[in-house]
Each structure stands twice: as C-alpha cells, then as structure tokens.
Design goal:
With 332 residues, this protein is mostly helical. Helix content is 71%, strand content 6%. It has 12 helices and 3 strands, in the order H-H-H-H-H-H-H-H-H-H-H-E-E-E-H.
C-alpha cells in the first residue's frame, strides 16, 4: 500500500472516517467540496474557450485536441495540488507524531465520503411520497438527479432516487474507501475531487465534450475496480440465492448496453439484487430519453428507496468488516 499504514491501521481509520460521516454528516458551512467546485468553475472559465451562450450555438466550431489538452491542464490544476498538499501535511504530521497523521487520514476520508448524505437526500423523498406530497418529492428529487422532475409521477421519482442511491453508493462511498485503502487520505481525496470534476465537466455537449473528456476518462479509470467490487457486493447482499444469481445475470447482460463503463455494472447488479426493473425512459431537458433496462422485476415504488439505502448501508459495513478481517488475518 502507498499509505504508510499497515492493514490494521488502515481498517480502523476507515471505520473512523465512516463513523465521523454518519455522526456529523456534511459540514453545513464551508463545505470543502463547495469551495472546490468554485475553484473548478473558475479554472474552467479561464481555460475553456466556449462561453455558455456560445456553447449552445449550432455553428460553434470546436478544436478537439486543443480542448482536450486544456481540460487535462484544468484537471491537473484543480486536483493535483490539493492532493499533494494533503500528502505533504500527513508527511509533516508523521514526522511529529503518528497520532496526528492518523487524525488527518481519518478527516480526509470523512470529507471524501457521503454515506449519510445519501441517506439525508433520499429518505426525505420516500417520506414525501408516503405523505402524498408530490410537489415536495419532485423538488427534493431535482436536487440529486439531472433529469426533469417537474411532471414526474411517484413511480418516476422512486426510480430516480433508487438509481441515484445505487450509483452514488459507488461514487460517494465505495470508491473513496477503495482508494483510501490504496493511498490513505490523499488517495480518497484525489478520488472524490476527480469524481466531482467528472460530475461538473463530464457532459457530452458542445461546451464540455472535449474539455471535459480527460476528467471523464480519469474518473472511469479510478472507478473501474471499485465499481465492480460494488456491483459484486450488491449481488452478494441480495436476500436470496435467486436474487444473487439475478443480480449477476443482470450485470453480465445489461451493463454493456450502458454508455458509462462503471454505472452500468453498479446499477444493473443493484437493481437485480433488489428485484427491481429500473432504467427505461427518463426526461432530460424536456425530451424523453430511452435508456437501456436495469435489473428485473417490479417497477420501483416509494418503499424501494428505503430498500436501496439499506443495500448501500449494508454494503458499507460489509466492506468495513472485510477490511477488519483482512487486518486480523495479518496477525493469524
């Protein structure tokens, strides 16, 4: 490992980071990712040569290679200095006291994961649907997905929230845990910043198609192994042997149809584990997009939001227990 930690220390610090997240949740003021988002936006405005109005023009001309190079430079300026500063702070703390370095590792993991955030953003949608408050459910769902929720039905909202939980379980939790195990707090931070840039720049539109391509490909690479570990974990936590087989089959047969090499395995396996039929039509910018199917079974309903959260939560504890078991095996 690149952490300077042994497996026992790494596993215990992973547990500490998750517990801090569950206890404290996202910082309500001065959230680091909010500050990073502002920095990334400033870098994009400086380096990306297309303005928002020009990006919508049908006659705009793009020079792909130059834009990709500027996007790579922007990614490097946004992510690498912060990861380097984090690594330097831990190195300096280690020279003073090991405990200080451990605290920094745990704090960096806390800032990088969002397990409680997934709960806090999605369970209120289920509660609003249970109360029959469709306007509030639509508003809350619009905060977590890019699709149009203005005319969404309860079934549409349940599907959107369930898909978001499954996919972001990997992006907001398991990817960060994986890279923490590999490279400690700086690794978790680098992963989360890269994932955030993909969410900001990784769109296939005129403005970002070339500029954001480097950010999208880096995120794909960093997520490749964690996404498949997440998909396998979802399958193994299905409540029955039939559910496990269904999840693995959905992963194998449906994931290749998705444009994202990592969201496909995660969501297809998760939907299969839950026995749900996800994917299909969704409205983006007023137009209905027919997406490939995910999973098999009944359409998502309001109670399935809670079921998806429980699957993500259980997967997190499966990973933590597995890390502790591996740590214990070192001394066996």
């Amino acid at each position: 490992m690149l952490t300077g930690l042994d497996w026992t220390q790494s596993a215990l610090l992973m547990l500490c980071g998750v517990l801090l997240d569950l206890l404290l949740g996202e910082p309500r003021r001065f959230h680091p990712l909010v500050g990073f988002g502002k920095l990334a936006s400033a870098i994009e405005r400086l380096l990306n040569r297309v303005s928002p109005s020009h990006a919508r023009s049908a006659v705009a001309v793009r020079t792909g290679a130059a834009d990709i190079a500027r996007g790579a430079l922007g990614w490097s300026l946004a992510v690498l200095p912060l990861a380097a500063v984090a690594a330097m702070c831990i190195a300096l703390a280690s020279a003073t006291t090991t405990a200080a370095a451990w605290v920094l590792h745990a704090l960096l993991l806390y800032f990088a994961i969002g397990l409680r955030s997934l709960r806090d953003h999605n369970l209120p949608i289920a509660e609003s649907l249970n109360a029959g408050d469709l306007p509030t459910a639509r508003k809350l769902t619009s905060y977590i997905v890019s699709r149009d929720t203005r005319n969404a039905t309860p079934e549409d909202l349940a599907k959107a929230s369930t898909e978001s939980l499954l996919e972001n379980g990997n992006d907001a939790v398991f990817g960060a845990l994986f890279w923490f195990a590999i490279a400690g707090g700086p690794g978790a931070l680098l992963f989360r910043l890269a994932n955030t840039l993909d969410a900001m720049w990784g769109y296939r539109n005129l403005r970002y198609n070339h500029f954001g391509r480097f950010a999208a490909r880096i995120d794909d690479a960093l997520n490749f192994i964690p996404a498949r570990m997440t998909a396998f974990s979802y399958a193994m936590l299905a409540p029955s042997c039939a559910g496990k087989r269904r999840a693995l089959q959905c992963w194998r047969e449906q994931a290749p149809a998705w444009s994202s090499p990592n969201a496909g395995p995660v969501m297809s396996a998760g939907a299969g584990a839950l026995g749900l039929a996800l994917g299909g039509p969704a409205v983006y910018d007023g137009e209905t997009e027919q997406r490939p199917p995910l999973g098999a079974g009944a359409p998502a309903a309001k109670q399935d939001i809670v079921r998806a959260w429980r699957l993500v939560h259980a997967t997190c504890w499966l990973w933590l227990v597995s890390a502790l078991v591996i740590a214990g095996a070192e001394y066996a």
